[in-house]
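Support request, please re-run this one:
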Amino acid sequence: MEDQIKEKMTEMTIQINQHEKIISQLVTMIASTNQQLINLSLIHHQSTKY
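Re-run finished. Output below.
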């Protein structure tokens, strides 16, 4: 019984680590997208000035 619990805990720990990696990648993607949007809006702002 205790072995099953330990096995399940290990399994869950692995899943948590995988989820953390995925979340980290998503955060990076969101930051990158935000930066691109900022760049686009700056370009647009520059082009509408003149």
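The first helix runs from residue 2 to 49. The CA atoms of residues 37 and 43 lie 10 Å apart.
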